[in-house]
Design goal:
mainly alpha; 7 helices
Length: 246
């Protein structure tokens, strides 16, 4: 390496080791754990609910704890119904199967209506009325299991789950939650609420307006072109082009 003609002295050796006072141009390696690359800069949305949260097996943020306990009790009732139906085959098998299928169907309908907030499909002004009717059907099916010695324990579990759901249905958080959800109201009330919701005011579209009077001028200095009039007859209508011989 040669020295520049504008500097004096010998050329520096590129392979020489820098001294303690010389500036160092080496960068210290950075710990990759200190800086997280690829992190989102905007607001992070919460993750979607899981299957257990959606159907009430697990708690959900926008759902009261009492509603979650009601759904969990219905799931326990469904599992006990299946077990009681299998154990009831030792007695009158046909009646046990019919009551088991009926109780399971009512149980699934209640779980779907409460978890999906669709109690308004039953067209009842009180969203708790379908729950009461469903619990009555489940209580009749559970009462039959008491008379079979093989299904007494399952019948006690069924009765306890029904009583827990009935007690929680009278609590204030459950009543407020059922009334506030639009899906738990009848279809007519949903349409009236949607029709009564005021819409956001929108600005009218811009319109071109002419001058206020014949003697006024446009304040922006723009004059619209005058529409072309009908062509005049005679030699005065000549626009400068040669006329044909006559």
């Amino acid at each position: 390496m040669t020295n520049s003609p504008y500097t004096s002295g010998p050329a520096p050796d590129p392979n020489a080791t820098p001294g303690p006072g010389a500036p160092s141009f080496q960068y210290r390696p950075q710990d990759p754990g200190e800086v997280q690359y690829g992190q989102p800069t905007g607001p992070v949305l919460p993750p979607p609910p899981t299957w257990g949260q959606r159907w009430g097996l697990l708690p959900k943020d926008d759902r009261p704890k009492q509603i979650t306990v009601i759904l969990q009790s219905l799931w326990i009732h469904l599992a006990a119904t299946v077990i009681a139906t299998l154990l009831g085959l030792t007695g009158v098998a046909a009646l046990s199967v019919v009551l088991g299928v009926l109780a399971a169907a009512v149980n699934l309908v209640l779980i779907w209506a409460v978890a999906r907030e669709q109690l308004g499909r039953f067209r009842s002004a009180n969203p708790r009325l379908p729950i009461y009717i469903g619990l009555g059907v489940l209580a009749v099916a559970a009462l039959y299991r008491v008379f079979n010695p093989f299904t007494v324990v399952a019948a006690l579990i069924l009765t306890a789950a029904i009583l827990l759901v009935l007690v929680l249905a009278f609590t204030r958080p459950v009543r407020a939650w059922l009334q506030d959800r639009p899906g738990n109201r009848p279809r007519g009330e949903q349409q009236e609420q949607a029709a009564g919701t005021p819409l956001d005011p929108q600005a009218p579209p811009p319109q071109w307006r002419g001058p206020a009077g014949p003697g006024s001028q446009n304040p922006y200095g723009y004059q619209p072109p005058a529409p072309p009039g009908p062509p005049a007859n005679g030699p005065a209508a000549s626009n400068g082009w040669p006329q044909p011989p006559r």
